[in-house]
Amino acid sequence: MKRNKKLLSSFVILLIVGIFYLFQNYPENKSLENINKRVEEAPVTAEERLEVTFIDVGQADSILLENEGHYMLIDAGNNEDGPKLVNYFKNQNIAQFDYVVGTHPHEDHIGGLDNIIKNFSIKTFYMPDVITTTKTFEEVLDSLAEKEMTLSIPKANTTFKLGDATVKVLYVGTEKENDLNDTSIVLKITYQNISFLLTGDASTKVEQKLNPTNLESTVLKVGHHGSSTATNEKFLNTVNPKYAIISVGENNQYEHPHTTVLNTLASHNITTYRTDQDGTIKVITDGTNIEISTVKTDTNG
Ligand SMILES: [Zn+2]
């Protein structure tokens, strides 16, 4: 009997300590409804990893890549997303980007880039060789000039390193294109056995120009916010992705993503994530395994 009493009191003490510990670690200012985490496959525990975050910027694109403390940003949402992205990156203690890429000079891709240029050190700034007369584009050029930075034009079929990851430039449009979307810089990022294909807003016209031997990828950022002008079925067969990410705004005026694209993805059994439904989508890989988690916040305004 005495032994049972001792066991019981030990249990009660453990229970109290446990409850106390839980309360101590409960995140402040965060309601559980705000955290919508969904994890696919096995969690990646290795310290050496590539993280690719598709940030929820509504009807726009912004993709952050990190490996071994090296950061790369591809697009920065619309004009109003600029200050939000600056805060988001500063909260992660990012001070410098090795590379910042503006895929093409439309507001929903380069809108926040002036804020990024003003607030962070940038080693290389890439955009296609295209000029537009919009205020947004001029703001990007002005902020580059203020920091005495130059714009670099990447060359197709060249590669560069982001930590241990390899970034290959598959395509860069010129001003000969009738559609600015088709000037999009197309990149493939490879980390050991896992790869990401990011096509900006390039249409099927560009998809057909890409060298098919380069295209097979684990994750596809679906072109042009899921518009029917991109993600041709033949192209999708060649890329053969396991996962698709659509960066798209809720109830957008373009009715992106189009049903035809969603149906094609579904018929190929590709697991699809959407920023309008899932929020910010983070893909972590150790080069073999993949972990995907999503966080829905109100940063989209
Ligand atoms: Zn766009």
Account of the protein in words:
With 301 residues, the chain is of the alpha/beta class. The protein has one domain (35-295): Metallo-beta-lactamase, Chain A (4-Layer Sandwich). 27% of the residues lie in helices and 24% in strands. It is built from nine helices and 14 strands. The chain has helices at 2-24, 81-91, 107-110, 113-119, 135-146, 204-207, 233-239, 259-267, 275-278, and strands spanning 50-54, 63-67, 70-74, 96-101, 121-126, 159-162, 165-171, 186-191, 194-198, 219-221, 243-246, 271-274, 280-285, 290-295. The chain has a seven-stranded mixed sheet, with helices on one face. Strands 6-7-8-9-10-11-12 form a seven-stranded mixed sheet. α7 (233-239) links the parallel β10 and β11 (243-246). α2 (81-91) runs parallel beside α4 and α4 packs parallel to α5. The longest helix is centred in the first third of the chain and has 23 residues, at 2-24. The relative contact order is 0.15. The model is unreliable at 23-35 (pLDDT under 50). The structure holds zinc ion.
